[in-house]
Amino acid sequence: MIAQRKDDHVRLAVEQQQQQQQQHSGRNQFDEVSFVHHALAGLDRPDVSLATTFAGLSWPVPLYINAMTGGSERTGVINRDLGIAARETGVPIASGSMSAYFKDPDCAETFSVLRKENPDGFVIANVNATASVDKAHRAIDLLRADALQIHVNTVQETVMPEGDRSFASWAPQIEKIAAGVDVPVIVKEVGFGLSRETVRLLASLGVRIADLGGRGGTDFARIENGRRELADYAYLHGWGQSTAACLLDAQDAPIPVLASGGVRHPLDVARALALGASGVGVSGTFLRTLLDEGVKALIARIGTWLDQLAALQTVLGAPTPAALTHCDLLIHGELRDFCADRGID
Ligand code: FNR
C-alpha cells in the first residue's frame, strides 16, 4: 500500500511538472520579485562564495535536494541516483518520509542508499509529526543523518484517501521530538507554506529551522486528488501561501528559514536568498530532470545552477548568499497585495 503510494507520488509529481510548464508557461509568484539593476554593483568572481551558515550549520552551498521518496523498489533506485547527484555536486539532501521503513523494515535499503552513495555529505532524515521519539532516533540512525526534517502536511493528509484526520497532537509531538534528538530539527511544509505565526510557534517548541515549503511548484492537493476515486477536492488546488509570500511573511522570524516550493532556476534561488532564506530546496524540478534525462544530466544541471548562482551574486555585488539580503528588490502584483494585507513593509 505505502510502496504503491510512493510510486504514485513520483508519477503524478512528474506529470504535474510537465503540465505546469505547458499550461502557465511555468509562472509562479517568484516572478513578482525582481532585483533593481545597479550597473556598477558587480564584484570579481573569485571574491564570491556560495557557503552558507545558519543555526550552527555550515553548508558549502545554499542549495539542497529536498525530501522526496523511498519505500518501494523503484523509489530506492531514485534515491540511489539522488544520493549520487548529491555526492558529485556537494549539495545537502533530504530523504523522503521514512514511515514506510517503520512499517516494513525490509525496505530500509531504499532509504539508506542515500547515505551509502553519499558517505560524507550532509544528509537529512524525514519523519511525520506523529512519529515517536524512538522512531525519530531510528530514522536518524539509519541514515547517520546530520539533521531531521519533520514534515507538516495537513492539507495533503486531508485530500489523501488513506490520510490522517487527527492533527491536534502534532505540535506537542514536534516539541517532544525536538527535545529528544541530538541533531537539529527542521520542520517543513510540503508546498502549502508556513505562516509567520506557525514559524513563531515552531521556535517556541524548540525547532531550530523552518523550511517554509510554499505554493508554486509541486501541489500535493492535486496529486492526492488524482489518487482519489472521485477527484472531488479540486477546489483545494493551489491552497496556501507561495514561497515568496512566506519569505516576506517571515522577515522577523526568530529562527533561520529555508525556502522551498516552486524553485525553477538559479534566479529563483537568488530571489529566495535575497528574501532571507539561509538555503533553498528543490524537489520537483530535479526529479523531472532525473527521470527524463538520467543522473548525469541531473549532476550537470545542479552544477550549472551553482555556477549561475555564483554568476548572479557577482553581478548583484553579493560576496556571500547572505549578502543578497542587502540587494534592492521590487515586489509586484498579488505579492504586493499580500504584503499590504499582512502589514509587511
Ligand atoms: C515530495 N515531498 C515530500 N516532502 C516530505 O517532507 N516528505 C515526503 O515524503 C515527500 N514526498 C515527496 C514526493 C515527491 C515525488 C515530491 C515531488 C515531493 C515534498 C517536497 O519535499 C517539497 O516540499 C514539495 O515538492 C515542494 O517543492 P517543489 O517540488 O515545488 O520543489
Automatic annotation (TrEMBL):
Catalytic activity: isopentenyl diphosphate = dimethylallyl diphosphate
Residues that, per the record, bind Mg(2+): 157
Keywords on record: Cytoplasm, Flavoprotein, FMN, Isomerase, Isoprene biosynthesis, Magnesium, Metal-binding, NADP
Claim: Magnesium is one of the keywords in the record: yes
Tagged with keyword tRNA processing: no
A single MF term (Gene Ontology): FMN binding
Primary site of residence: cytoplasm
Subunit comment: Homooctamer. Dimer of tetramers.
Job of this protein: Involved in the biosynthesis of isoprenoids. Catalyzes the 1,3-allylic rearrangement of the homoallylic substrate isopentenyl (IPP) to its allylic isomer, dimethylallyl diphosphate (DMAPP).
Name used for this protein in its record: Isopentenyl-diphosphate delta-isomerase
